[in-house]
Amino acid sequence: MGKNRLEAFSDGVLAVIITIMVLEMKAPHGESFTALFPVIPIFLNYVLSFIYVAIYWNNHHHLMHVTQKVTGGVLWANLHLLFWLSLFPFATAWMGENHFASDPTAIYGVVLFMAAVAYFILEQVIIANEGSASPLKKVLGRDRKGKASMILYAAGIAASFWVHWIAQGIYVLVALMWLIPDRRIERASSH
Predict the structure, then answer these.
(1) N or C: which end of the chain has fewer CB within 10 A?
(2) What pLDDT does residue 41 have?
(3) What is the Cα–Cα distance from 16 to 42, expressed in whole angstroms?
(4) CA dihedral for 152, 158, 164, 166, sign (positive or negative)
(5) What pLDDT, on a 0 to 100 scale, did the predictor assign at position 183?
(6) Cα(159)–Cα(38) distance, rounded to whole angstroms?
(7) pLDDT value of position 42
(8) TM segments (predicted)?
(9) CB burial class (10 A; 0-12, 13-18, 19+) of residue 17?
(10) How far apart are alpha carbons 34 and 83 in whole angstroms?
(11) Neighbour-count burial for 49-82, b at 16+ CB within 10 Å, e otherwise
(12) d(Cα 60, Cα 118) in Å, to the nearest integer?
């Protein structure tokens, strides 16, 4: 299978994920602006989740541009990533509906953590398939940003049981770290 087909399938799944997330937001009953106040946490959580899905879409796009060979292992690793990303609408809705309570915040963090692990696995499978001359291996180096993200997600999960707004701050911090696409991959894919 060519990488274009893999990328098109992934793009479609990510578009559906965003659609499901926005459909989970229900219009409030009432005609004044004050009727919007109860849905502010749901909206803020949607914005954060939208940013995360956009980050994954953007980085996945760049990842596929430096990938030379798609194998069965790459397909399964990609599906593993899509599985965890497909849980974003559930985790987003649960946390937003419950105003960032501890348990939903922890589950949101677990989904973020597992999506990061799945992305890391996808990178490693691509590198293993391409060998020591893998362009991805050269641009990733030690992947400190990816590993730091996983550590921060784990800290966020732990913090959610202590002070849930600290966990939220950690999740926002990681999103801010990734808002700009990985320049290492971006530079390699432009050659």
Answers:
(1) C
(2) 86
(3) 19
(4) negative
(5) 66
(6) 25
(7) 87
(8) 6-23, 35-55, 75-94, 106-128, 148-180
(9) buried
(10) 37
(11) bbebbebbbbbbbbbbbbbeebeeebeebbebbb
(12) 12
Token output for 10: 């992934």
Q: What is d(CA 59, CA 166) in angstroms, rounded to the nearest whole number?
A: 26
Token pair recorded at residue 32? 């004044």
Compute the radius of gyration of the chain from its Cα atoms.
18
Using CA atoms, how far apart are residues 41 and 36, in angstroms rounded to an integer? Answer: 10
Q: Which amino acid is at 114?
A: M
Contact status, residue 72 vs residue 88, Cβ threshold 8 Å: no
Instruction: For 124-145, write each residue's pLDDT tens digit.
Output: 999 999 888 888 888 887 889 9
| Per-residue H/E/C for 26-51 | CCCCCCCHHHHHHHHHHHHHHHHHHH
Residue with tokens 């700009």: 180
Q: What are phi and psi of 104, to 5 degrees?
A: -60, -35
Task: Please give the model's pTM, rounded to 2 decimal places.
Answer: 0.90
The parts of the chain modelled with pLDDT lower than 50 are none
